[in-house]
Amino acid sequence: MDFQKASIEQLMYDSLFNVLIKSSTSKPSSFEKHELNYRLYIKNSSIGYLYASNATSKAIQLYYNELFEKGLTYIDKNNVSKTKKVSSEKIFDLNKTLRFFFTYCIFQSYRRENPCSLNKISIPGYADSSDEDDETIFDFNIQAFDDEEVKTKPKI
Q: How many CA atoms, within 13 angstroms, populate the side-chain half-sphere of residue 88?
């Protein structure tokens, strides 16, 4: 493989299936998380086709912004195209996978710096730190005990 012309998709596949899965120091859950992110967000994506040797933070930032704004389009088991919202948390998790991958590339001397460092990337989201249109499972109408109720001992 010509590493100067290898895509992120090609090298990430190689790092996952020829290195990480066989590592004695890596937990199976790490492989599963990174492989899922690879399969859903890197394979056949706009950033998956970029050369790993010269991918920029800007290109990755634009991809994250697009994921956050437009969501992820996929084909379901009935061969129907669907779009799913992608949260800030998921993009942050994807960025962990890409940081891990680019760190691997640095150790292999494929590139000099990590374009996914958090000082180079801004995870898209809303200022109030909750994603728009997310449904919450929590009811914040909390009823506290008053002083008298706190003093009352339960009957056993």
A: 14
Q: What is the pTM of this model?
A: 0.77
- pLDDT tens-digit series, residues 77-126: 899 999 999 999 999 999 999 999 999 999 999 999 999 998 999 999 98
CATH of domain 8-122: 1.10.150
Angle subtended at Cα 6 by Cα 3 and Cα 12, rounded to the nearest 5 degrees: 100
Identity of the amino acid at 2: D
Which residue, chain included where needed, has tokens 């704004």? 69
SS3 81: strand
- The string of pLDDT tens digits covering residues 7-33 is 999 999 999 999 999 888 888 889 999
